[in-house]
Amino acid sequence: MRFTPEELQAARDRLVPDVAASGLRVLFCGINPGLMSAATGHHFARPGNRFWPVLHAAGFTPRRLRPEEQEELLAHGVGITNVVARATARADELTTEEFREGGRLLAEKVARLRPRWLAVAGVTAYRVAFDDKRATVGPQPRTLGDTRIWALPNPSGLNAHWTPATMAEEYGRLRAAAFAEDGDG
């Protein structure tokens, strides 16, 4: 789909519904929806975003899903939410207060849904939302109830520090942990 700049701007502050259910293996958590995601109603919808190819390369899905197929994730024990619900053009438009409030609301959501793992796609967003300045990519010592947390690299095409291959390797480590717990997957 192609959108005019005006159509994308009109999507500012819209919400993108979660793809979530109780008892997921992994609840992926983006920073916040971008304007393309808000315009389409699908998570990680910007063409340069590497979430969908990395998810497949890491073994979470049997084929590369398109953003409009996001509901299929539930059949694979996976869902998607965001730290901050409102859409912006760039994550740096969000305030520290929004991240902290988002972290509080996310903790409530996790308590309700009880996924095995919360995977925050953006270690910087995790640091701010959960006031953990020393967090690095990987499993975190903190838990939310019984839910473990994994900070992942942000799949945005702007994150040049991580290649699709190194990103898929890290996401694959999470997949192995999430699905090896009782021999599934």
UniProtKB/TrEMBL annotation:
GO molecular function: hydrolase activity, acting on glycosyl bonds
Cell inner membrane found in the keyword field: no
Signal sequence extent: none
Chain coiled-coil ranges: none
Keywords: DNA damage, DNA repair, Glycosidase, Hydrolase
Ranges of residues in domain Uracil-DNA glycosylase-like: 17-180
EC number, as in UniProt: 3.2.2.28
UniProt xrefs under SMART domains: UDG, UreE_C
UniProt keyword Hydrolase present: yes
PANTHER family: G/T AND G/U MISMATCH-SPECIFIC DNA GLYCOSYLASE (PTHR12159), G_T MISMATCH-SPECIFIC THYMINE DNA GLYCOSYLASE (PTHR12159:SF9)
NCBIfam families: PRK10201.1
Protein name according to UniProt: G/U mismatch-specific DNA glycosylase
Organism name: Streptomyces endophytica
